[in-house]
């Protein structure tokens, strides 16, 4: 096994970089039979993407099913309508989720991917199961904290693992596919949850309790699946042959020269923490997750506010996810095809802003519902887009681990922001019983206007950051081509992806 570039590989010249701009060197691929490369990548895709997508889909469902459970009777049973109890119970999950990101990615290297993912998945599955047996608001908050602790090390681990297997401009399509799996399952989870609520009354449990119990059991089962099938890093995974392993590592070495893992040190951690570019990626991910979480937590109340019944609101939550699935892959394909990230992210920000304006300021239920399609399409596509943008513009395993953790931690802060600015007091309530599990319906005048404007502000912030980063990266690339500065990211032949 070799993680370094072959000595027979020709050196990359600056003038060659000017022609290809974003890719460090295509040479190692030419050393291998294209059919061998294609077959190996397909095998890796099948081993990596479906299981990762399924696990993340369940994670997303488990962290955002509060809105569905609330509609199905939890609000009445746990008296979540008092003060800001629902918003606090939703938000408190994100506090440990943010705090444990960097420690989680460090433990990933210590434990290995299979054990790390198994502990995370089984742990939050147990917390989810426990939520089905809580009897008051305080117990619910404790379970939400445990959920945040175990999920903290999960998503950054997925992104980190996937980005170590592929070249920079092969990443976004893969991230998009695994995220699309989560969109599909997450989008249809309200329909499945509605079916679970029909168990209300069985064994003395309400419908919302059955949601948590069934989904918790499924998640624990997937923890076992993660142990059996989750892939490790390229240099340690056993499902590839030595020839395949060398080919994968050679491709990575040529593309960004970080096929060999470097251990994280305090000096490296500090260097990443004081780099403004690292935080710009994090703020972009915050801006991206803000509308995604807002839709996840509040789409059912929003649809109820349009005059639909509870069952209709649950069923109508699914179609916007279908549109987001198509949009996410289309933009990922365009980004990888053009080897550009920032312009396509900006387009999706504008789509999200348009959707928020339509949902907030039009007067018919149909147009407001159409606005939710645009919000979903704009926000969902930016999630893999920002992760790919971040992954494309850093080198070394240690920096990748820390920067990914920062980025996803800031996404958790986006969740805190979403659950606090979409406030309980922004929708008036009418105490009308629609069906046995629900206490409230909402008048059509409700629009969550402060939350909508806060979400739009995040999109404008992201547009500004994209503009600043594009200027900085373009300038650094130009200076390097003109030999007016040293190697970018301390990596010879590396150029930033715009």
UniProtKB/TrEMBL annotation:
<feature type="transmembrane region" description="Helical">
    <location>
        <begin position="314"/>
        <end position="335"/>
    </location>
</feature>
<feature type="transmembrane region" description="Helical">
    <location>
        <begin position="112"/>
        <end position="131"/>
    </location>
</feature>
<keyword id="KW-1133">Transmembrane helix</keyword>
<feature type="transmembrane region" description="Helical">
    <location>
        <begin position="452"/>
        <end position="474"/>
    </location>
</feature>
<protein>
    <recommendedName>
        <fullName>Major facilitator superfamily (MFS) profile domain-containing protein</fullName>
    </recommendedName>
</protein>
<dbReference type="GO" id="GO:0016020">
    <property type="term" value="C:membrane"/>
</dbReference>
<feature type="transmembrane region" description="Helical">
    <location>
        <begin position="81"/>
        <end position="100"/>
    </location>
</feature>
<keyword id="KW-0813">Transport</keyword>
<feature type="transmembrane region" description="Helical">
    <location>
        <begin position="137"/>
        <end position="163"/>
    </location>
</feature>
<keyword id="KW-0472">Membrane</keyword>
<dbReference type="GO" id="GO:0022857">
    <property type="term" value="F:transmembrane transporter activity"/>
</dbReference>
<feature type="transmembrane region" description="Helical">
    <location>
        <begin position="401"/>
        <end position="422"/>
    </location>
</feature>
<dbReference type="InterPro" id="IPR036259">
    <property type="entry name" value="MFS_trans_sf"/>
</dbReference>
<feature type="transmembrane region" description="Helical">
    <location>
        <begin position="283"/>
        <end position="308"/>
    </location>
</feature>
<dbReference type="InterPro" id="IPR011701">
    <property type="entry name" value="MFS"/>
</dbReference>
<feature type="transmembrane region" description="Helical">
    <location>
        <begin position="342"/>
        <end position="363"/>
    </location>
</feature>
<feature type="transmembrane region" description="Helical">
    <location>
        <begin position="211"/>
        <end position="231"/>
    </location>
</feature>
<dbReference type="InterPro" id="IPR020846">
    <property type="entry name" value="MFS_dom"/>
</dbReference>
<keyword id="KW-0812">Transmembrane</keyword>
<feature type="transmembrane region" description="Helical">
    <location>
        <begin position="44"/>
        <end position="61"/>
    </location>
</feature>
<dbReference type="Pfam" id="PF07690">
    <property type="entry name" value="MFS_1"/>
</dbReference>
<feature type="transmembrane region" description="Helical">
    <location>
        <begin position="369"/>
        <end position="389"/>
    </location>
</feature>
<feature type="domain" description="Major facilitator superfamily (MFS) profile">
    <location>
        <begin position="48"/>
        <end position="478"/>
    </location>
</feature>
<feature type="transmembrane region" description="Helical">
    <location>
        <begin position="175"/>
        <end position="199"/>
    </location>
</feature>
